Amino acid sequence: MQAANIRIVLVETSHPGNIGAAARAMKTMAIDQLVLVRPQLFPHAEATARASGANDVLLNARVVGSVEEAVADCGFVAATTSREREHNFRVLDLREAVARAVTEMTRGPVALLFGAERTGLTNEELALAHVLVRIPANPDYPSLNLAMAVQLATYELYRARGANYEQPPAAVPLASGVEMERMYAHLEAVLELIEFRDRTQNGTILMTRIRKFLQRAELDANEVNILRGILTAVERRRRRAGDPPA
User: Fold this and answer.
1) Which of 55, 62, 152, 237 has the fewest CB atoms within 10 Å distance of its CB?
2) How confident is the prediction for the chain on average, in pLDDT?
3) Which residues pair with 114 in a beta bridge?
């Protein structure tokens, strides 16, 4: 599900570790196009260390001298900002912005810009964007680390492209109806053995309730065997000397 038309552009990044962490965030979310505008230290060992296996993203990263060069072929550009007000700019919530980006990437390259850690993007750099992007955060402390901001943005891009977590198939099948009925009969026998009886008037509520919560648990065959093993152990402890086996 690699995103061929989406690139992340980091502008004047001062800390090489943030470049590596951003590359890791990108690879996790299936984005591999990284463009670096005037990075202070790159390549760098710390960038490689923080990439944690996303070395291919770093190796393929383009280093350019200006934002204009980084987005020259892009039909749509979104720039992140932490400023409360940007006059004469359209400012979108991150989720709205990535939805627009995913639509635009079907027509051509799309770029998402991130400014320097301390200063962000200049007005001239913001002017190259079609929309500005705000990441919702605590208004009393809206500061986000650069790599964290890239992670949030790439995650939203991944979800907007239709990705969903898929549960891997279980190694052990769910217990069959026959296995469950045998377990219920075994459980009922053990409850009688330890004199844990239904105190309701008709004497049927207890097992009905037990059946309901065990059915909700969706036990697999191994789990049923574990429960029956516990029940057998209880039987052995309760059986008095000389009693016949249950």
Assistant:
1) 237
2) 90
3) 10
- Cβ neighbours of residue 82 under 8 Å, at least 6 residues apart? 120, 134, 135, 142, 143, 144
Q: Please state, as a whole number, how many other Cβ atoms lie within 10 Å of the Cβ of residue 134.
A: 18
CATH of the domain at 20: 3.40.1280.10
Q: Is the pLDDT of residue 236 over 60?
A: yes
How much of the chain, in percent, has pLDDT values that exceed 70? 93
CA 37: distance to chain centroid?
28
If asked whether residues 129 and 26 sit together in one domain, one would say: yes
Q: Specify the 3-state DSSP secondary structure of 79.
A: strand
Q: For 99-151, how does the pLDDT look when each residue is reduced to its tens digit (9 = 90+)?
A: 999 999 999 999 999 999 988 899 899 999 999 999 988 888 888 899 999 99
Q: Containing domain of residue 181, as a range? A: 177-238
Measured distance CA(125)–CA(118) in Å, rounded: 15
Whether 171 is in a domain gets the answer no
How many domains does the chain fold into? 2
**Amino acid symbol at 135:** I
**pLDDT tens-place string over residues 168-185:** 777 889 999 999 999 999
Is the pLDDT assigned to residue 239 strictly greater than 90?
no
Question: Could you write out the three-class secondary structure of 139-163?
Answer: CCCCCCCHHHHHHHHHHHHHHHCCC
